[in-house]
Amino acid sequence: RDGENRAWPFMNPGTLLDAPYRPDAARAGYADLDVALVGVPMDLGVTNRNGSRFGPRAVRNIERVGPYEHVFKALPVHELRVADIGDVPLQSRFSLEQCHADIEACFMAIADAGVRHLAVGGDHSITLPILKALGRDRPLGMIHIDAHCDTSGEFEGAKFHHGGPFRRAVLDGVLDPERTVQIGIRGAAEWLWEFSYESGMRVIHAEEVDALGIPEVIRQAREVVGDGPVYVSFDIDSIDPAFAPGTGTPEVGGLTPREVLAMMRGFAGLDVIGGDVVEVAPQYDATSNTAHVAAQMALEILCLMARAPSMGQPSGG
Amino acid sequence: RDGENRAWPFMNPGTLLDAPYRPDAARAGYADLDVALVGVPMDLGVTNRNGSRFGPRAVRNIERVGPYEHVFKALPVHELRVADIGDVPLQSRFSLEQCHADIEACFMAIADAGVRHLAVGGDHSITLPILKALGRDRPLGMIHIDAHCDTSGEFEGAKFHHGGPFRRAVLDGVLDPERTVQIGIRGAAEWLWEFSYESGMRVIHAEEVDALGIPEVIRQAREVVGDGPVYVSFDIDSIDPAFAPGTGTPEVGGLTPREVLAMMRGFAGLDVIGGDVVEVAPQYDATSNTAHVAAQMALEILCLMARAPSMGQPSGG
Amino acid sequence: RDGENRAWPFMNPGTLLDAPYRPDAARAGYADLDVALVGVPMDLGVTNRNGSRFGPRAVRNIERVGPYEHVFKALPVHELRVADIGDVPLQSRFSLEQCHADIEACFMAIADAGVRHLAVGGDHSITLPILKALGRDRPLGMIHIDAHCDTSGEFEGAKFHHGGPFRRAVLDGVLDPERTVQIGIRGAAEWLWEFSYESGMRVIHAEEVDALGIPEVIRQAREVVGDGPVYVSFDIDSIDPAFAPGTGTPEVGGLTPREVLAMMRGFAGLDVIGGDVVEVAPQYDATSNTAHVAAQMALEILCLMARAPSMGQPSGG
Amino acid sequence: RDGENRAWPFMNPGTLLDAPYRPDAARAGYADLDVALVGVPMDLGVTNRNGSRFGPRAVRNIERVGPYEHVFKALPVHELRVADIGDVPLQSRFSLEQCHADIEACFMAIADAGVRHLAVGGDHSITLPILKALGRDRPLGMIHIDAHCDTSGEFEGAKFHHGGPFRRAVLDGVLDPERTVQIGIRGAAEWLWEFSYESGMRVIHAEEVDALGIPEVIRQAREVVGDGPVYVSFDIDSIDPAFAPGTGTPEVGGLTPREVLAMMRGFAGLDVIGGDVVEVAPQYDATSNTAHVAAQMALEILCLMARAPSMGQPSGG
Amino acid sequence: RDGENRAWPFMNPGTLLDAPYRPDAARAGYADLDVALVGVPMDLGVTNRNGSRFGPRAVRNIERVGPYEHVFKALPVHELRVADIGDVPLQSRFSLEQCHADIEACFMAIADAGVRHLAVGGDHSITLPILKALGRDRPLGMIHIDAHCDTSGEFEGAKFHHGGPFRRAVLDGVLDPERTVQIGIRGAAEWLWEFSYESGMRVIHAEEVDALGIPEVIRQAREVVGDGPVYVSFDIDSIDPAFAPGTGTPEVGGLTPREVLAMMRGFAGLDVIGGDVVEVAPQYDATSNTAHVAAQMALEILCLMARAPSMGQPSGG
Amino acid sequence: RDGENRAWPFMNPGTLLDAPYRPDAARAGYADLDVALVGVPMDLGVTNRNGSRFGPRAVRNIERVGPYEHVFKALPVHELRVADIGDVPLQSRFSLEQCHADIEACFMAIADAGVRHLAVGGDHSITLPILKALGRDRPLGMIHIDAHCDTSGEFEGAKFHHGGPFRRAVLDGVLDPERTVQIGIRGAAEWLWEFSYESGMRVIHAEEVDALGIPEVIRQAREVVGDGPVYVSFDIDSIDPAFAPGTGTPEVGGLTPREVLAMMRGFAGLDVIGGDVVEVAPQYDATSNTAHVAAQMALEILCLMARAPSMGQPSGG
Ligand SMILES: [Mn+2]
Ligand SMILES: [Mn+2]
Ligand SMILES: [Mn+2]
Ligand SMILES: [Mn+2]
Ligand SMILES: [Mn+2]
Ligand SMILES: [Mn+2]
Ligand SMILES: [Mn+2]
Ligand SMILES: [Mn+2]
Ligand SMILES: [Mn+2]
Ligand SMILES: [Mn+2]
Ligand SMILES: [Mn+2]
Ligand SMILES: [Mn+2]
Q: Which of A234, B68, D59, F190 could make an SS bond with E70 (beta carbons 3.0 to 4.6 A apart)?
């Protein structure tokens, strides 16, 4: 019986979703993987509380998430060839620009090998270089769950901060705004996000969710992203701080994990080709609940990838 | 006025539900009690984070729960003869089997005296010896609120771990699976719980609650357990970790305390003859919220017992 | 661009809602203010856990709330002349009565200057002297969001404890019970609050909110308070302890911040002439979430004041 | 074997030093006790952080202190007739004066019964009414271990705050300043404590301890208090905040527990007739270390009482 | 430059002393290792607070300890062939006896391969099966740093609890009591440890350290253990709880890390052939300081092993 | 009486050393100040845990430090004209280089006004631009209390990280290495600090302090810095993590606050013309003890400045 043979949940160094640890995957050309789980311990893009550089390690330390997802009826870490390949080799703790270059190079290599990925940040600025690697051939659709639209412009001289990756991704042609939906938006920075509306993204605020209901949110999101390739970017601050206090820019009045779980399950069948979970700052996570929710959402995204129509097809990566 | 004469909430050693402390009750044959509140500080049955051996003390330290329950319009600690009789005298911190024998003996003695009980654990494995004491004459019905079905089989050589008490209780003939409902189920161990379905238990997953609505959950639960004697077993991990982080096997996406309060109140009139509150591990409870919810649910179960049709009848115990 | 010129969220001493700090405002006669933000660091009125004397400082330390409220489409700190004028000068850490006298004098002076206020406590007993200052000319209406009715009588020889301010406010003629609604009520002290019902207040319990729905709660509250001047008193313990653990008399089964945000926004257009946020005890707030919710609700109340029909009129104060 | 028969350290409600709980001792006239362990959950005398009203409960919850003290080679809870008699029945959570009257009455009754006591606070103001009860026949000598001299005068209209009990005790004739030594003194309030010097107390600052060495500190203390009856008052803030963070007025640069343990053991043979442990505020005690040190020091004082020359003599109380 | 090439301290899954992770070492016969770093996540032997099953993971998560030890002028992880080989494969979370058998088998295999080890617990009971593996050919000497002698007898029916491993090790002939020194002893269980004295161990209490001075403690310890093979067993509860709160049976008045560091460095040149660091329970370690001290002491023991006369000799293992 | 008139310790926004808040000081040319207290909330120079950007706010929130220092018999905030002038206006949260330019400009302006300063960081990299501002006319002497020498070279492409400010300060001619003493040094990076020895700094390791004794440490430090102008740079990680856990690169085995207090007082009479307190990261400071020690050390440095021979002389700045 499987239960008997698994290592205890608190044994050995933890890995992302308890997947095998393969620090040598890059050298081996990622050849035998379907999905690479990758940490991106970088938080130089934040505007308030830092600390999400410790996010990947915190998610690895969660003892029990998966392997089974009973609504998907999936065992994605076992159905697919999945490994935790460690963290992106970053060359500078002092340069946001250098980190972005390193991230782009790493995800480009993974994609070039025909391998998909699920990344764990780090701050949300990491999604820009990731999208640049994944969307270079055609702009991607995106389901973006966040308290913030992250479509503001240059700020204090920085192009790559965590408040603006999706503006640049659109401008760089790697993200299709008309196939982008942003869910859970709230807080005081609405005036910085005109770009979302101007570029044609669909924005669903947290306070709209009650009136719409989750089934309608799911319906609208599916409608927006359609059948094409979709990236799922999950910012933990979309979740209310009661459930996920460990983050750098919390906003009162967020989504509940049950709501987001329902959404994730409602997205089954979309062509999800990659995703990330970002902004876990464990210094502010007195109970480790935040990392726990992040790990669960990583499992959900992996299930979506396992069930994606293009998974396993030649052009899958 | 009552308010004037009560001890301050933080005065003196705390007791379960602020009931009188009667450590000598066993020696007195429990003669003058309707309900014994009992701690069971034992956590040798856990599979992940331990610590619920400190659960009874944590629940005792909650300053303010009850005595009045305004929806039941009940003062159960005063309406009935209730006392905190201390903890089960356990003989070994190293043997799960010995502890189960001690627990069974203790609850057998209470039941033999015609006294009902409300237990505070400890891990969920304690409910097996309790049910063996209470259900020896006829199998009981059960309302089981939990993230887990706890109906798996032998595990790592252990028969009495906290993941399987209800399988054994059915096999031992002390629990009636067709009069058992399990509410709040979720997480990654679904494949271990076939026994719930095969034996005829009704399983309501956490994610089903939104669609059903609480009134329908109540209706189904009442339908399942019917008019016969019912045991209420409340595992704190049924509640979402945001509300109850202090537990050993937390699962994302749980019930809210408001939902469970509504259920408890909706169960009024059932013939609840005993119950327990388990799996409070205060080491993980940075705010003491978990013990607070546990204490509140203990009050609700005591209200159900106070309003049970058979309370006070000769065969009540 | 505004974003560029604002101080970083963690820079300099924090102030209420990041408003300018004007400790000299009293000496200047408050002449140039529309709304004074005032701390009241006093917790001698509590019956259980103390610590809300640290509430104002905790709320000041929240890094990011406002300035924009995107549902109100308001920038109240900028639309109005608003300043943090520091804390009420209190003369005794040992006398509840002396503190109440000091509070009344301070708010009387502010009101006499034709200036409105938003106070941050401190325990809920502070609202009595505040109402005495504001309601001396005519009794006020009130929207009171709390787990407790706070209408009990003298207790342990004290007239001014935090469990009874609204009984006395009615008896003193400064609060109109028939224009008072109390929302979120629950817990074990119902039997102490007969006065609410006898005097004609509308009481909406937490457990009633599910059945009513938030829109109906808003409708009833608007109906009760009508067009006259309304005070908004927000006790953080109205919110469930998962979202707001840092308080002295928490009660299981509370409102969610999303529910209260919806209410606040639904109260737009009422003639809100003042308000307070009370009972934040940061010692119990492991994540600072409680102070965060408190700060957000202070912003909402300030928006209500900014949108009040009488704001800016000669008799505004 | 004793070890086999003792209750587990985390079982049942905790009591002071794990002594039997005797809430009915007052009614029984304390007749069969040598030493009453008493909680005094009152903190209305504090000037900064409150919370020591929870001190007695925190000390009761420490799992393992004693019963054996291996340097004294004593088992004081078993050598003497000792019980935790619960907390002083206090009548008002709002009046410092009333609390002091209640405390004085309670300790007067204990002393009248010829019973000695060891008290656990609560703030340090409680020692004034205690000394008034114990010293009414003749002024006592005192070993006072504290960061503060606590000999300042009236403050903000209060006579009974925690910064001045020993001035009043001298003025009331119940404390002999020339037989009083104060050890561990530091912090910014030196200018408030002239009375210590003027009245003839011996003050040993924390920073003097390094140069003197513990043996010399012991020698001086013994010299000061001599052969007469001695009270030991231990304020937990004497200890450095690293070892005892859970207190209301911490001061950098304090004593270590090892230093104070050495002192306590060095005081063996003095005629210690009573004592207290005060200022434990568990809200600030993230690890429970503070309550642990407090419990240990209570054991040490009880050992001193057990070894006092007058213990067991007719005039012992 | 080395500093440039090392992974960031918070990157990738953490390993013991940042050594390479070699989960396959057992299958490879440990052939190419000098020292195996091994986790033993087992805490079924505790008598009070459990949780040290999470100790190995906590020590792995410490970001920065070593690689250089500037007093030893050693880089032991690089000088020797060292790897983190993961945790002992344990077969039952419910049987202390089974775990001991598994531990003994694992360390026997390592020793049989001629490889030395440094273990990280887990509770102190693990040292008995370890010593049985290492000392089977001749009894070992031991430097034992602990608050407790751990030489008591059978307890509650258990032979293998964490309070008695060194009695049994002597009785089993794998530990030489006359070459054993126990340092840091204190607390209330002295009467359980007669065996230490009767068997000829040297016991140095915590309170003796001040009078002796660290150089004399070192001299005595060296004298006791002499030139033969020495095992170093470091129980984190030897350290004062201020420095190491995260443990299950804390004792007031412990050693400081600076004292123990001085001892470790003073033991240089002894023939240290193995060691362990035990009793880290991270649930009680609010700051991670405890795991940090544990990791540092592991580094010190590894330095002692690197400098041991027999290291690298044929009979080294 | 002063005690009566001071604001309560928890009232109003906190300021550094409770000094008056003067955010407009820069605009006023600092004209009427002797010493400016300045926050520098910048942590882009760290190599491990970030978070010290919140250091200034944490130190401001300490309730009670000073105003009196009883060993110095000084009231420095009152003896001198001292104000908290807020934080350095920093222009980019993303560029370490830009921050350093802003810091240098700010301190240059203060110095140009003939005003001295005491800075609160922020990470230790801030001391380089500060020294460049203060030492431009002649290299300064320095008492540097730290776990680390901070004299390493360029790292990961960065010149201005927190591990190297004092190498660059020497190379830039603003720090005199032969008049520099570094106290408390330890940890694993010794091999990076050759520059300290080569340039002629005096390095006193933490482990040397026991043998030397504090008086000898003071004597050597005074000998090194002599009569010339001295800067005091206090890195909180010099202190042992038990006393100061809230920092980014903690090292086991540090100094105690009592030792550093004794040093500070032993430096009285040196010509201390400025100083800083750095590396307080409150995210890791579960008790606020770290910020408390930092505030106390800031008071000590201010006392040294108040007693410096050149204070008040024309060339004082
Ligand atoms: Mn984002
Ligand atoms: Mn976000
Ligand atoms: Mn269960
Ligand atoms: Mn469960
Ligand atoms: Mn209230
Ligand atoms: Mn309330
Ligand atoms: Mn005191
Ligand atoms: Mn004190
Ligand atoms: Mn041990
Ligand atoms: Mn031990
Ligand atoms: Mn430094
Ligand atoms: Mn440093």
A: F190
